[in-house]
Amino acid sequence: xxxxxxxxxxxxxxxLEGGSLGTGNGVNYNFPVEIFxxxxxxxAVAAGGSSSAGIGxxxxxxxxxxxxxxxxxxxxxGQLGDDKSDIDPLCPRVTVDNILDYKQVSCGFDxxxxxxKTGFLWIWGDNTYGQLGNLEANNSKSSPxxxxxxxxxxxAVAAGGxxxxxxxxxxKIYTWGDGQFGQLGFAPTTSTKRVYSPTHMVNGGDNWVxxxxxxxxxxxxxxxxxxxxxxxxxYGQLGNGQNGLDFYPVKQIKFKSSPAQTVAGGTNWxxxxxxxxxxxxxxxxxxxxxxxxxxxGQLGDETKTLRNSPVEVVGATTDWEYVSCARAHTAxxxxxxxxxxxxxxxxxxxxxxxxGSDLLVAGxxxxxxxxxxxxxxxxxxxxxxxxxxxxxxDGTLWVWGDNTDAQLSYNANDTNTFVATPRQTAAGxxxxxxISFGNNHTQAIGIAFPSCNVPIPVPTPVSETGKLWGWGDNxxxxxxxxxxxxxxxxxxxxxxxxxxxxxxxxxxxxxxxxVWDEIAAGYLHSLFIDKDGELWSVGSNTFGQLGYHDDDYAxxxxxxYITQVPNNDPVKWQKISAGALSSYAIKQNGSLWVWGDNSExxxxxxxTVPRSSP
Length: 614
Hints:
- The protein has 614 residues and is an all-beta fold.
- 2% of the residues lie in helices and 40% in strands.
- The protein is built from two helices and 41 strands.
- The strands form ten sheets. Strands 34-33-38-37-36-35 form a six-stranded mixed beta sheet, with no helix packed on it. It has a four-stranded antiparallel beta sheet with strand order 1-2-31-32, with no helix packed on it.
């Protein structure tokens, strides 16, 4: 039973509170990141409050062999998440957190959001409107952070112009950022025009299954298949039969601050997409409906008439599968895998091989097929800029449209401003999963083999397995290394115990050739078990959590090097777990041992007295 309890504790180690995590840039982060050093045979890892340690084989970078988050284009707000702003803007570069195994990405105007397969939500870039959700105004972030709400139960995220929708596994929607048009799902007031932390959108219930965000309006579909929209409505993009172009004094016509159904109603909606000022949705019969601004034919109804209620795309076919609304054009994939687009084409964003305005391209107010062969699987357009991108079923990534800020990056040596035909990016590869466009940057999830230089620092390889490596904040010497901040994984030195003639233990300097089996990291201390079953610790000892002093709580000196914990029992150690300021371990006979902080009874000793030894 004790073994089961400790295993549960090990699987839920404390989240990081800051510290450079081996990414090579010396910057503190509040989330786990993949080290630039890579490696292929790690056997264990532990993350403390501001440092990390790992056991494994270090063999150089692995960022080209797993699906990472890649970005290219403008990076003035750090929206690429690579903690840099001075490298080749044409060259795809991986974000600093490439181990997180993303499943979805969504770009806002100058920021990026993403959800991992394990349910964590990460966000980076511009924070002028509080769109990072970290309780701050301004203070842009050039590397991914979590919102103040945290959690690992996010299922999807949608980034709008300068606001965000987050969908939880429970069906609840949380919103934050710019709310001046009611796009957060509640009436804007002086205090809620900008919301700096994820806030539960109560209106409309808690049974949502799909979300989408436009420039200043939003949409969601619930479990019953009902489609709701809210936010800006100047062009009728909410589909409620009203619009604010006449600038009536009744503000409710110009925007709606709580979710409402379109005049079409129904319980058969499957997917929805919000563009800058228009909206599209596909029903369960695979029919495509659109509404909102139509001054460039982006609704695909062969007119340029504004529509404040849903109209069907010309042809009324029942073969639409996926749709994406952009700034002033629309693209969609049919059930046969063919790709179509319509609307404005000034930058070649329709991808049909022609540059020019809609007046120069026949039929842009109705769908035109994009050539290129193959079957298209995933699609994205930029609601703020005139771009388009799609992934084929063979995993290749293709882009087209506006390339003013290198947001297409299809060729590192190409300076073409506009691209009228789909082309692959400089990232290469055939294993792409998702893509999203911001105002002037792009993010994609996949494996990349860039044809341009991607600077990734690599430390000297060490071939032995089972070695102990540490990186991050070392201000409390919790890594047992010399520098206060360790940018790359370094082999960690240890101090073994020997005993004098009276049986008193003392430390003996030792190299880093010890082979390790278990590691655990607390807030400012770390625990280790070697292959021989000996227990070791390092770092802060404020509450006796290092376990060095038998019932001598007054001696709380922190140890700068990994030191063996005295053990007068011949039974060796088997499992360990580190709390914030306390420690837990199981011996090979199944007995459970505890020490350290006990102010809240966390040691389970039927008291609140701390212990400085197991």
